[in-house]
Write a structure and sequence with these properties.
The protein is an all-beta fold and about 350 residues long. Among the domains are: about 35 residues, no CATH class; about 70 residues, no CATH class; about 120 residues, Jelly Rolls (Sandwich), CATH 2.60.120. The chain is about 0% helix and about 35% strand. It has one helix and 23 strands. Strands 16, 18, 19, 20 and 22 form a five-stranded antiparallel beta sheet that branches. The chain has a four-stranded antiparallel beta sheet with strand order 7-8-9-10, with no helix packed on it. The chain is elongated. The N terminus is likely disordered.
Length: about 350
């Protein structure tokens, strides 16, 4: 007499080997002869289609176009939303035994990874033929390539931006790498000295500091929407056959203009030199040669007196004045303005 479980179809046989047995929820399909080995730890498929599998799952199927078999592995159900930070688990969750997670986005999460306390390895590591291109480790957070971009979580309020050999690194903690350019300070930095250099750094001090509390001796942490932005704008200017040429771009009113750097990309005919002026202030450090590839940092105004400090009261363009009027308009100069914009408190 047939047992309670599924029976083999006509033309095929099912054999149970070892000491196991097929239960009423066992699933067998296909023709021919199928031999089932029941493992010591049982896999189950319940009536709702939920599979509990304690062993290793290996797939050797190749990817395919969606017009055919489609992806070898696909999860296309509806993501869960609307629960608590504990119950709204990711659609796909990789979580080690013993770890607990209660900080998920209640609007839903596609993929979640949660390690146990004390884990020091990589939560994610994307590689090309063994070379890591993007990884997220348990200590520092995301790292691109070989450290081109790194966010440390040891103190998330602090970030140091540096440029070394063309790379960019944002590092947390309490030290500034040589060549540092940008610091985002938290309240742990209590002295003015820390604004210039922190820890044992021996490189040049950073040139820009932004933070909640750069120093506790000069006031309290701002929290009313105030801020400061350092910005750049650029234009490749055609030098007219005229006494002057002015950029279409304009430094906005209210900005503090730090520099107007230039590079001659195409020689300016007739003239030998030119000056760079914005808002009536000369920025070139010396008369700039009209020869191709000539450059000037355009920082002369930064040493001006307070009375002529480069505050832009009305939006202004940059004026190039050759020492002689060019015979034609074939000359080209690339102009870059670097300026500060200060946002006052909103309340």
């Amino acid at each position: 007499m047939a047992g309670p479980g599924p029976q083999p179809t006509t033309g095929g046989t099912t054999t149970v080997v070892s000491s196991g047995s097929l239960t009423s929820t066992a699933l067998v399909t296909g023709g021919g002869t199928t031999t089932l080995q029941t493992p010591s730890a049982t896999s189950t498929l319940d009536s709702s289609g939920n599979l509990a599998h304690p062993g290793t799952l290996r797939m050797t199927a190749n990817g395919a176009l969606s017009t055919g078999a489609g992806p070898a592995l696909r999860a296309n159900g509806t993501w869960i939303t609307g629960g608590s930070a504990t119950t709204t688990k990711p659609y796909a969750l990789i979580e080690t035994t013993g770890a607990t997670s209660a900080g998920w986005n209640t609007a839903g999460t596609g993929l979640g990874v949660n390690s146990a306390t004390g884990f020091t390895g990589n939560l994610e590591d994307l590689q090309v033929n063994g070379s890591s291109k993007w990884k997220v480790d348990a200590t520092d957070g995301p790292i691109v390539g070989t450290g081109l971009l790194q966010f440390n979580s040891s103190n998330p309020v602090i970030a140091h931006l540096s440029a070394t050999n063309g790379s960019t690194s944002v590092n947390g903690g309490t030290s500034v790498t040589a060549g540092g350019r940008l610091l985002l300070y938290g309240s742990t930095h209590a002295t003015l000295a820390n604004q210039a250099r922190v820890g044992t750094d021996t490189g040049p001090p950073p040139v820009f500091t932004l933070g909640l509390t750069p120093s506790t001796i000069i006031g309290t942490a701002p929290a009313q929407g105030q801020g400061i932005s350092i910005l750049q704008c650029m234009e490749l200017l055609t030098i007219a056959a005229a006494a002057t040429s002015t950029t279409t771009m304009q430094v906005p009113a209210g900005a503090i203009l730090l520099s107007v750097s230039v590079r001659v990309t195409v020689v300016i005919p007739t003239a030998a030199t030119f000056t760079v002026v914005c808002n009536g202030i000369t920025f070139n450090t010396a008369a700039v040669s009209t020869a191709a590839t000539s450059t000037d940092a355009g920082t002369n105004a930064n040493v001006a007196t307070v009375a002529t400090y480069p505050y832009i009261g009305t939006a202004a363009g940059v004026v190039i004045t050759p020492n002689l009027t060019p015979a034609d308009n074939t000359g080209r100069v690339r102009i870059t303005c670097t300026y500060l914009v200060v946002t006052p408190p909103t309340s």
